[in-house]
Design goal:
The chain is of the alpha+beta class. The protein has two domains: 70 residues, no CATH class; 43 residues. The chain is 47% helix and 15% strand. The protein has a three-stranded antiparallel beta sheet, covered by helices on one side. A two-stranded antiparallel ribbon has the order 3-4. The longest helix is centred in the last third of the chain and has 24 residues.
């Protein structure tokens, strides 16, 4: 296992959904893969989840790898944004840099934003 923190989204080459023209078979095709973080099962074993391509950068795009890496970075930065915000607020509170009332107000805003996101998904 790597010492680096898990990244849910990574960039790798793929042959998935290729046109298979002669030119296409010679070119690299990049995809953004998703993989859940490994889970410690508490009995000394770890569950490793399957990695699957979720976004494929079109063969006709220039700078495929650069585009895929940019999108992957954006997805990783914002994937668990609410959890990150809540953890940051707790750390600031614990360090005495955020008053308890401000901490609770921040958590309430995060929870309200989560409910709004769920509502948008239901309506869509």
């Amino acid at each position: 296992m790597s010492d680096n923190p898990h990244q849910c989204f990574t960039v790798e080459t793929t042959a998935y959904l290729r046109n298979l023209s002669a030119e296409d078979r010679r070119e690299e095709c990049y995809a953004i893969y998703y993989q859940d973080a490994p889970e410690n099962l508490g009995d000394g074993t770890t569950r490793i989840h399957m990695s699957a391509p979720v976004l494929i950068v079109s063969f006709w795009m220039g700078e495929q790898k650069a585009i895929a890496e940019c999108v992957s970075g954006i997805l990783n930065a914002h994937w668990d944004e609410n959890a990150s915000l809540a953890a940051s607020a707790a750390a600031l509170r614990d360090a005495g840099l955020l008053a308890p009332a401000d901490y609770h107000r921040t958590i309430n805003r995060i929870e309200a934003r989560e409910r709004l996101c769920r509502l948008k998904e239901i309506v869509a």
